[in-house]
Amino acid sequence: MDLESYMINTLHVSEADIQRLRDEKIESNVISLMTDEELAWFFKIAGDRVLVRNFVKTLNTSGQRKEHLIKNVRERLAAIRNKRIVNKYEVY
């Protein structure tokens, strides 16, 4: 689930508030850097601010994990390709 869907479905944030976030270019990476006072401009309820921060934290964590997994897969594929190239030129 993306941040916008989470805000609509779980926090019941109004479309006007979501549009304000879009207009100000507030995305998950920005939210993680904002202070509570800054978030209060967009989320009036303190509990919503806590939930949004937690959701963004899980988004960032899962994103980092995905990047790490993709990097590992690319490295393994490169190793396989290199092995095939070496084997191609071996003399039997």
Automatic annotation (TrEMBL):
This is Uncharacterized protein. It comes from Brassicogethes aeneus (Rape pollen beetle).
